[in-house]
Amino acid sequence: MKDSISLVLVGAGGMGQCYLKYLFKEYSPPRVRLLAVVEPQPEKSASYAKLMERRIPIYPTLNDFYEKNPPVDLAIIASPMHRHVPQSCQALQRGNFVLCEKPLSATVQETRRLVAETHSTDRWVKVGYQWSFSEAIQALKKDIIRRRFGKPLRLKSLCFWPRDLLYFQRNDWAGKKISDDGHWVLDSPANNAMAHFLHNAFYVLGDRTELSAMPQEVMAELYRAYPIENYDTIACRAWTVDGAEILFYASHATFEEMGPMFSFEFERGVVSFGEKGDAVVAITNDGEETNYGSPEKDPFRKLNDALSAVHSNRPVICGPEASFAQTLCMNGIQESVSDICPFPKSRIIKDKNRIWVDGLAEEFYACYQKGILPSESDHSWTCRGKNIDLQNYEFFPGGAQPKGD
Questions:
Q1: Which domains does the chain have, with CATH numbers?
Q2: CA distances from 72 to 7, 76, 102, 172 (A)
Q3: What does the alpha-carbon distance between residue 59 and residue 38 come to, in Å, rounded to a whole number?
Q4: pLDDT, tens digit (0-9, with 9 covering 90-100), for 75-115
Q5: Which stretches of the chain score pLDDT less than 70?
Q6: Computed from CA positions of residues 32, 35, 41, 46, in that sequence, does the dihedral angle turn out positive or negative?
Q7: Comparing C-alpha atoms, which of 167, 144, 114 is closest to residue 270?
Q8: Cα–Cα–Cα angle for 73, 79, 81, nearest 5°?
Q9: Contact 268/284 with Cβ under 8 angstroms?
């Protein structure tokens, strides 16, 4: 690593705040120089006083920063998700490398735009799916690539992270399909808090480190208990191009917190995480066991990887190409269900801060264990979406590229 790396951080709340805490704790000049923060409402950041104390300039927009400063080595994009691609492209055009938070974008056309920009500028973008950068997932993926477990059959993932009313009131795009300024957001468990785990199922099946397996078809069931535009609960089934089944269950509307957990079934073994411990463990059909460790270890390995790669030819572990599978599947999920299905009012419980669905966690977990969707059980409240073919999916919404583009 070069003696000094300069960077700009876009976003000082949410994940931006997490980056600031880590940078202040782990790095100090001259090794890493945080030249500026881009944040339109900096006084709302918990690190505002420390930024003032360290005299780190704050700019309202990325353009304002670039107009008054020379190029930096690395731009960290931790802004609202519908700004990820435009700001990443702007940073690439200014000669910066980019570490962009997940999810990368709301639509496949945006992701393709960013891939094209990396090629034209000869700069890389790393996407902050922290599990992908972990030693555990990288070791597991290597074993999957060399077919240690044989053909992948079924990969199941589940996560229940209850959220309160303030979660959906914290900004002007939470729980929405479109932001107030007219951009697709598609905020949901599958494209925000639990996007990690949908991405991970495709990522571990990619035939190269920097690639994910691609979904070719998806069918979803989307539900909501909260008074939001999009869904707070999802169950879906996708199929990869190579025939692996992907099942994903996630909710913000359970009473209990559960997961993340997964069970990945192969011809010659099962790989699991989260249900019996915090390590990824593989057990082959002949009883051989491998403990890969926890993917939760060192969540800022992604930042260290990006800093190490600025002045080297270190390959990109998780870039836009690897992230594309999650975006493609998520777009198909939205297309699968035209009208989000409300949970029965008789099942919804409210207090002054939270809403949850009575018994939902138990019902979804039972589906996870059986490898079925809720509509394939005996529950009367379920709503089944339509199958969406993703093989030639080019544009959200509708799949087909609009005429004239």
A1: 5-130 (3.40.50.720), 135-296+320-389 (3.30.360.10)
A2: 5, 11, 22, 30
A3: 5
A4: 999 999 999 999 999 999 999 999 999 999 999 999 999 99
A5: 1-3, 28-29, 403-405
A6: positive
A7: 144
A8: 120
A9: yes
Structure tokens at 390: 């993703």
Chain length of the chain: 405
pLDDT tens sequence across 344-388: 999 999 998 999 999 999 999 999 999 999 999 999 999 999 999
Which region, left, alpha or beta, applies to residue 404 given φ > 0 means left and ψ of -120 to 50 means alpha? left
